[in-house]
Amino acid sequence: xxxxxxxxxxxxxxxxxxxxxxxxxxxxxxxxxxxxxxxxxxxxxxxxxxxxxxxxxxxxxxxxxxxxxxxxxxxxxxxxxxxxxxxxxxxxxxxxxxxxxxxxxxxxxxxxxxxxxxxxxxxxxxxxxxxxxxxxxxxxxxxxxxxxxxxxxxxxxxxxxxxxxxxxxxxxxxxxxxxxxxxxxxxxxxxxxxxxxxxxxxxxxxxxxxxxxxxxxxxxxxxxxxxxxxxxxxxxxxxxxxxxxxxxxxxxxxxxxxxxxxxxxxxxxxxxxxxxxxxxxxxxxxxxxxxxxxxxxxxxxxxxxxxxxxxx
Length: 312
Known about the structure:
The chain has helices at residues 28-32, 54-67, 76-90, 131-137, 163-176, 220-231, 245-248, 279-292; strands spanning 8-11, 14-17, 35-37, 40-45, 48-52, 95-103, 117-124, 139-143, 181-185, 191-194, 198-203, 206-209, 235-238, 251-256, 260-267, 270-271, 303-305. By secondary structure, the protein is α+β, with helices and mostly antiparallel strands. The longest helix is centred in the N-terminal third of the chain and has 15 residues, at 76-90.
């Protein structure tokens, strides 16, 4: 992933050139992590560019702000339109979208409420996180020594920037240990999720995924996988998951906006199943991408078309 540093960024109600989208060094969020964000993708389809599950992402953005007592000065409809405007202004057929809400400059006390609530929307081109090879062959992961957030510390269901300091520790350890990604456990030692991905395991064609009480983000791609898996006829169980299930699974895969649906071929250097993408993972992955790329009808209404500018 690399930024071109060209194009426009939406910032506090208007589109500005990339180089002009700046904040002050005294911005509260820079010091204390008082920010909320979303990760969204837009895909090229035969009918044009379409944003994946935009209303659900925007609802979660506002829900996360509610947890952190951040009142946005823009109604959700206006910020949703701003996402579409930013994608259109940059001319991308497919891209990654990052809406960010943060506390600005007023004071640097721990109580952030005197600081204004500001927002920005950044878009950039980003293909598959682990490349085409990762989507087909899977990735190697390890169980992290860093645990996920304990209850009543930081709210795991809010997509807050502060939470991702924990994710960065998990990701750095995985990279230094030679893994593509990591799986973190919760405070009870049960399986939680990846550094920024939800996790699914398959055993005897039954699909398991940690429940929302296991310090996971209630992922929107996770919800899509649950819907698609059941439509494909698989039994799905959302349940507390012991660590040893990681080593007994026939298949395993991550899902999320960035990672999409990516198979896992080994965990702690133990092959998952036969060490190749399994049939359950393959079926869900194929259905997922067929919808996103417009190859099959979008019966769930998951795609929001980016309006094309009217010709004069």
